[in-house]
Design brief:
Creatine Amidinohydrolase, 9 helices, 32% helix, five-stranded antiparallel beta sheet, homodimer, 19 strands, Creatine Amidinohydrolase, Chain A, domain 1, six-stranded mixed beta sheet, 394 residues, 2 domains, alpha+beta
């Protein structure tokens, strides 16, 4: 396996900036600052300590605090300027009235510090602009997502090499993390949130699959302590209980998400039945997505399918703990546009990648479900995490 | 080994809130909101999706979005109120003029949303208040830090079980992560930053030890891609090069930081010499800290020691890439108050825990150094990461 480090090609960056331009103009901005590394990486090719200044006229400027040499090697941008403090950008600014900043993530104090430099400007949130662009994946991005999916498939194939009676959930998590890292998995998953941290070791067995937590997920897991109250726990895995492995992969900054079911000895019948319903929902929703059904409708349609199959109580959580999404876009962030969710209403389009995850929860008994990362193409869909979907018994 | 999950005792929470009260009064606040989970965990005992409202009069209120049952079990607070949106807090508020929020981390958009609910209030940053409290560790916190340090010591002891010629840096990282998780390590390290993510696998061998990156560290490492440009890389480790292992541990939310040096076959002589100087600097600085020398002076004193030993060029980075700190407080965050740094000026006091990390970088050759997590006690210091400090040759 090769471990070539891939830089973002110049044509790729140029095309992204070209697509950004009309959005900046439409928002009547005199300039826009991208401070969040996910977004300035997308627009510049580097995640060095920097931020990008996009102007309606003239080339964008990448201001770099550290480390200049790497930023210059990684980014094909022409204008890369070293700075020590924010104040150093002053000479590069024209007269500004309406200024874009990533107000959904930039801390209040940082925005105020910037305003001090910029003067009395109106701040406009520009995170929706890059989120809009990032919905559509280019062939370059798809090639990286395919590699991430190949790593993910290998990890799920390897679970039977490690899983055995008495192994703790977190121990399996560590073993998979170890194996995945050897394949190029970057370890950290990225989400846009002040308090929620994504993690890879979401491994739930038996009753821990029915424990909810702070995360917006049908199944939070027990976790390791009140300070890490999600995901795999010290619980030992037993024969005859459902074992849900939901292990995200990141590769060259791109994520894929996948879930498969395992059991030691045998899988209890209700979970087999529920799992088959989840698979059925997945394919029926994908078919409807291809026909152009909108995301809110896809979500409601999936609920109806679960109810019709007799699993309305269990689908996407139970009781007061149901979640309102069935899928999430995926790319440089683990969860990004589009969302297949109650409150999102648009068609899914070719070039979009998303994770679809119909899951069922049974109080005190456990959880089951499937998840795949899918690419929509003109006239069809392609499951990138295309590993066998059968329940694996070890 | 027991895996008992420890909740924060009621007396502990009460004492923290008691110490917070005069700080809130001194700041003339009509109320303060703690939205960042590190800080509301410290004040409430839970990291569920919530935030804490502290009033000058009356008990603090923990507003919980998800999950109420766990928050109630984990937190000894009396007033725990479920909410669906921010708006639901309105009936619980008195008349407010000066309101505390964690402006260093709360996103601008979130602060504005809050202001909409609170009316025309003056926002004051209250992060310095909890940072001030958190500098001093209680016996309960120290008992958790000791456990974290015991895990860390075991991990460093285990390196020779894994390290061999031709192993990639990231593979060693995965193996240590796997082993550490089986001991209770929680995997994610926490830092207060929009863009910098901490990670455990900071393993650098030979020339990768001299590669700098976006991180404020003498040695950034090569990392895995432009999207993860720090820490361990795919480089294979060779005989006769310095191998620096800097693998942070988190346990029940508390971190320890440690660095030890390894080599396959033999360690080149310049690195042996430089390493011994680092150890000497560590102990001399700790002695001066006990005598009451202030942090900025400790930093400058350590620079002088490095220069006197002939390593001024290499100490804490080389050329333009030197860093301006020798140590960082450690606890619920990997880096918190106090800092042994050029721009911090106060004495270190009993009850404080910090990591001290004298390190040397040699361009194109590599890096070496030591790091320990230390507790200051009345009249002495205790190295929590008290594993053997000799260079380990495998």
């Amino acid at each position: 396996m090769s471990h070539r480090i891939r830089h973002t090609p110049k044509a790729e960056i140029e095309s992204r900036l070209e697509r950004l331009k009309p959005l900046v103009e439409k928002a009547s901005l005199d300039g826009a600052f991208f401070h969040y590394k996910i977004d300035y990486f997308y627009l510049s090719g580097t995640m060095q300590d920097a931020f990008l200044y996009v102007r309606p006229e003239g080339e964008p400027i990448l201001f770099v605090r550290r480390e200049l040499g790497r930023a210059q090697r990684e980014s094909p941008l022409e204008e890369i300027v070293p700075i020590k403090t924010f104040r150093d950008i002053k000479p590069f600014l024209g007269p500004l009235k309406r200024v874009g900043m990533q107000l959904d993530v930039v801390p209040y104090a940082m925005a105020m510090k910037f305003r001090e430099i910029l003067g009395d400007v109106t701040l406009v949130d520009v995170s929706p602009l890059t989120q809009q662009l990032r919905k559509y994946k280019s062939p370059f991005e798809i090639s990286i997502l395919e590699r991430a999916a190949a790593i993910s498939n290998q990890v799920y194939d390897a679970v039977p090499d490690f899983l055995r009676e008495g192994l703790r959930e977190i121990e399996l998590g560590g073993m998979l993390e170890n194996f995945a890292k050897s394949l190029g998995h970057e370890g950290l998953l990225r989400v846009r949130s002040l308090n929620y941290e994504a993690y890879t070791w979401h491994i739930l067995s038996g009753r821990t699959g029915s424990i909810v937590s702070q995360s917006d997920s049908p199944m939070g897991g027990l976790g390791l302590s009140p300070a890490f109250p999600v995901g795999a726990s010290m619980k030992k895995m037993k024969r005859g209980e459902p074992i849900l492995v939901d292990f995200g992969i990141s590769y060259h900054g791109y994520h894929v998400d996948q879930t498969r079911m395992y059991a030691i000895g045998h899988m209890p019948e209700p979970f087999v039945k529920a799992y088959n319903v989840c698979r059925d929902i997945q394919y029926r929703v994908l078919d409807k997505a291809l026909e152009g059904m909108r995301t809110a409708d896809l979500f409601m349609y999936s609920k109806q399918l679960a109810e019709d199959a007799g699993f309305g109580e269990n689908y996407l959580g139970y009781g007061l703990h149901k979640v309102n999404f069935l899928g999430h876009g995926i790319g440089l962030e683990l969860a990004e546009l589009p969302f297949i969710a109650r409150t999102h209403d648009y068609p899914l389009e070719a070039g979009m990648t998303f994770a679809i995850e119909p899951k069922m929860v049974f109080p005190n008994m456990g959880a089951c479900g499937i998840e795949n990362t899918v690419l929509l193409e003109p006239g069809g869909y392609r499951i990138l995490t295309n590993r066998d979907e059968q329940i694996t018994i070890v």
